[in-house]
Amino acid sequence: MHWDPTPLETVIDAAIPRLFPAAQVAIRQGGESLFARTFGYLEVAVNQQPVQLDTYFDLASLTKLYTATACMTLVEAGVAHLDQPVSTLLPELQGSRPIRPYEDPLQPGQWIALEPERGSLVAAEQVTLRQLLSHSSGLPAWRPLFREPDAASARQMALHTFFSYRPGSRVVYSDIGFILLGLGLERLLGKSLDLIVQEQVLHPLQLRNTQFYPGDPFSPPTPPPPCVPTEWCLWRRRRLIGQVHDENAARLGGIAGHAGLFATAEEVAAFGESFLQGSLLQPETVAEMTREQMGGRGLGFALRSGDPLASSFPFSPGTFGHTGFTGTSLWIDPQRQLVVALLTNAVYHGRADQGFQAFRVAAHQAILEGFA
Q1: Is the pLDDT of residue 61 over 90?
Q2: How far is 317 from 322, CA to CA, in rounded Å?
């Protein structure tokens, strides 16, 4: 089938550098590469070095898909079970805990209350792996782990956090849930999450340009690694290159279940295609991951939304994928046998949405227009 890249290239060219200075796109269809191209430069008006196909991008929350996939390989092997209590892996997650508002990560000083407090308590041991994977665990969306003095203290804050609603009663997208999922996998296998993801996901799929970036998240790497820069970090007081953008992931040492992976668009697309080709997980496992568990969520995956403002909206029903806060996304459209990895560094200009959400929709629409 002929595909014209012009509509997509026009949309991306119009966005650089206004929305982001750098982008990579990889599109696969029917098991074959349809398009792989870079756009822009590593910096704005400084060191005008073009982005290459082997330049790394901070995947941000796309990391959750790799953590979820590693978990599901262990479920397939019978080492873990979706409905087992998380406390069987993390004994700290037991006892009665209060329901409280949580800190708003985007509006410092503001709190988000999902349920009236009124002395309500949650039995922490009732939370299951399925609930962590489907963001229905009752855990708050976010906590300021980065304010803790070290990684050990940050882990303890996550392990002993309060709840924000009753488990299983609703969906609240939670970084904390995936941080605990990563810690649970580490306890289960007795090794670090980066090794688990490598052994369970990256090595079997032969993904050599995907990694939790080595090095100290608080010291500038020398020389700078082959990564696009992200935001000027007020906390670390410099622009980040090759160091995880997410502050909580940084405090946890750069390796966490919710964020920390770096990769290229071609490898993200290859990872996405594994769910269509059955090259890692069994079809019934993929079906369970992409079945709606609650509130438009699968296991790890977000499902295609009917909201015209959602980046998944242009694709077919049955589409699944994820977005990342840095400006990354992966969408898998089984009906079209289409995989789209769109990586940018939209946080380069800061965290306010200056039109990036609309750009994502326009880019995906342009991809589909190319088939006309």
Answers
A1: yes
A2: 15
d(CA 349, CA 16) in angstroms, rounded, equals 12
Give CA–CA dist 258/135, Å, rounded: 12
Q: Report pLDDT digits (tens) over 244-283.
A: 999 999 999 999 999 999 999 999 999 999 999 999 999 9
H or E segment and range at residue 39: strand 32-40
Q: Give one word for 288, left, alpha or beta, with left for phi > 0 and alpha for psi -120 to 50.
A: alpha
On the question of pLDDT at 190 being above 70, the answer is yes
Determine the Cα–Cα distance for residues 83 and 370; give it in Å rounded to an integer: 43
Least confident span in 134-148, 179-193, 219-233 = 219-233
Tracing tokens 């966490």 back to the chain, one arrives at 256
Query: How would you class 184 by CB atoms within 10 Å of its CB: exposed for 0-12, middle for 13-18, buried for 19 or more?
Result: buried
pTM: 0.97
DSSP class of 56: B
Q: What is the pLDDT of residue 352?
A: 87
pLDDT band at 46 (very low <50, low <70, confident <90, very high): low
Per DSSP, 60 falls in state: G
Beta bridge partners of 263: 57, 210
Residues in contact with 226: Cβ distance below 8 Å, sequence separation at least 6, in sequence order: 52, 54, 55, 56, 242
State the average pLDDT over residues 111-120.
84
Nearest 5°: phi and psi at 351? -95, -10
Helix axes 175-189, 151-159, angle to 10 degrees: 110
Pairing mode, strands 320-324 and 57-58: unpaired
The dotted CATH code for 71-193 is 3.40.710.10
Rounded Cα distance between 344 and 228, Å, is 9
Q: What is d(CA 234, CA 213) in angstroms, rounded to the nearest whole number?
A: 21
Minimal CA–CA distance to 340: which of 359, 368, 299, 318?
368
